[in-house]
Amino acid sequence: MGANATKPNKAAADFVLNQQKNLPIALKPEDCKGKTYIVTGANAGLGYEAAKHLVRLEAAKVIFGVRNTEAGKVAKSTIETELNRKDVIEVWDFDLDSYDSVKAFAKKVEGLERVDALVLNAGALIRAWDVKEGNESNVTVNFMSNFLLAVSVLPHLQAIAKKYDIKPHVVVVGSVGGLFVGEQAKRFSKTGLLDDLNDEEKWKRDMPERYGMSKFLEHMATRELAALVPVSESGVVMNVVDPGLCKTALTRNIPFFERLKSSLAKAVMGRTPEMGSRTLIHGIAATEESHGKYLTACEIRE
Q1: Where is the signal peptide (predicted)?
Q2: From edge to edge, which strands make up the β-sheet containing 36-40?
Q3: What distance in Å separates the CA atoms of residue 250 and residue 125, rounded to the nearest whole number?
Q4: 97-148 pLDDT, tens per residue?
């Protein structure tokens, strides 16, 4: 067996071992006092738990970017009541289906005096053919809209870095699924990638892997963007975190038998949303060594 053939097996073995780890909480209250954090998709799952950590760690402001603002307000009330910290959370409308919504959100971010980290957690696993903003919906929601936001607010983050002599972070929540799309990626044109991704017939062929492909694009885009704007010039750290397999509602809309297999895997080795959220906290805490890197199990990987 060749070296290349062993890589997926090693990655799978590493994944299973990593799932068993008790992950650290990489930030302390003294790290978060007076700071402002933005977490998209914060009304449930990993985003909710990460935001809850930040409130507990005495952040001055935590902004929820959510599509369902009513659910966001319920989450805000629950966290602030449980932790006895009022008026810390703000709930902002943020819909990855709409570039106008993303741009409006970015405009509000530009009005903030300070941003210490932007956590791009919102996303979806979509199994029905749909087109949003001219692209297949997984591509729009998980990749295009997230990076539209990142690129839009980057100049403001750079100005904040210079003004306060800090290193704001952009933390992209990726997936180990983005590491297992090698064969699928080979089937796409190198010069017409979006055309292939937006081809409905090719979507039918690749549907089970399309979420992973959108996450692969996130990984690659983070790496490329980080190379274009090194920390030494921008003052901004960008990384991708893999939360692992977590007991969240991400797979609620996939076909029954796939959902059953996913549920069994989660029951055997799935992390709780709180444990998975620690990887997001690690992304915020990670040093500039993490710039452009893939982080998993609260460790920097290439």
Answers
A1: none
A2: 89-93, 61-66, 36-40, 117-120, 169-173, 237-242, 294-296, 299-301
A3: 6
A4: 999 999 999 999 999 999 999 999 998 887 788 899 999 998 999 999 999 9
Domains and CATH numbers, the chain: 24-180+210-296 (3.40.50.720)
3-state SS string for the chain: CCHHHHHHHHHHHHHHHHHCCCCCCCCCHHHHECCEEEEECCCCHHHHHHHHHHHHCCECEEEEEECCHHHHHHHHHHHHHHHCCCCCEEEEECCCCCHHHHHHHHHHHHCCCCCCEEEECCCCCCCCCCEECCEEHHHHHHHHHHHHHHHHHHHHHHHHHHHHCCCCEEEEECCHHHHCCHHHHHCCCCCCHHHHHCCHHHHHHHHHHHHHHHHHHHHHHHHHHHHHCCHHHHCCEEEEEECCCECCCCCCCCCHHHHHHHHHHHHHHCECHHHHHHHHHHHHHCCHHHCCCEEECCEEEC
Whether the model pTM is above 0.70: yes
> What pLDDT digit, counting tens, does each position of 167-225 carry?
999 999 998 776 766 666 666 656 667 888 888 877 666 666 777 788 889 999 999 99
Instruction: Report yes or no: 148 and 99 within 8 Å, Cβ to Cβ.
Output: yes
C-alpha count within 13 angstroms, C-beta hemisphere, residue 142: 24
241, 174 Cβ separation under 8 angstroms: yes
Residues with catalytic function: 211, 215
Q: Which two tokens stand for residue 186?
A: 């080979």
